[in-house]
Design a protein that fits this description.
It is a single chain. The protein is mostly helical and about 120 residues long. It has a domain at about 10-90: Orthogonal Bundle (Arc Repressor Mutant, subunit A). It contains six helices and two strands, in the order H-H-H-H-E-E-H-H. It has helices at about 10-20, 25-35, 40-50, 55-70, 85-100, 100-120, and strands spanning about 70-75, 80-85. The chain has a two-stranded antiparallel ribbon with strand order 1-2. It is flat, with a radius of gyration of 18 Å. The two termini are about 30 Å apart.
Length: about 120
C-alpha cells in the first residue's frame, strides 16, 4: 500500500496552528475584551477554540509584548495575574474589527483564488 503523502488532518492542523500563531496577539486581545483572563485561561481558551495546545512560552511572551506596548495591563486578582485591555488596547481592537471584511477578503483571495485556479485545470 502506498503511504499517503498528504494527510488532510495534518495539513488542517498545520494551517490552524500557523494562523493562530500569526494572529496570537489579536486572538488574545479579542478574548481579553470579553473578560479579564490569566495566561492559563488563554491557553485553555485557545485549546477549546482551535483544538491544539499552544505553548505557555508563546502565550506569555505575547502577553508581555502586549503589556509593553500598552495594549493590556496585568492586575493581581485573587492568587493569579489576569490581563485587562487598556484604552489603547480597546482602540486597537476596534480598528482591527473595522478591518474584518478586508481580512476576510484577503483570506478569500488566498484560498479562493487558488481553489478556482486548480479546479479549472
Amino acid at each position: 500500500m502506498v503511504k499517503q503523502v498528504f494527510d488532510k488532518s495534518r495539513i488542517d492542523q498545520s494551517i490552524r496552528y500557523r494562523i493562530t500563531r500569526d494572529f496570537m496577539d489579536i486572538i488574545i486581545l479579542l478574548e481579553i475584551l470579553k473578560s479579564p483572563l490569566s495566561g492559563y485561561d488563554i491557553i485553555t481558551t485557545i485549546y477549546r477554540k482551535f483544538n491544539f495546545l499552544i505553548s505557555s512560552g508563546t502565550v506569555y511572551s505575547t502577553l508581555y509584548a502586549l503589556e509593553r506596548e500598552g495594549l493590556i495591563k496585568g492586575v493581581k486578582r485573587d492568587r493569579k495575574r489576569v490581563y485587562v485591555l487598556t484604552r489603547k488596547g480597546e482602540i486597537f481592537i476596534e480598528n482591527v474589527l473595522a478591518m474584518q471584511e478586508n481580512i476576510e477578503n484577503l483570506i478569500s483571495k488566498i484560498f479562493g483564488g487558488k481553489y478556482l485556479m486548480y479546479n479549472n485545470v
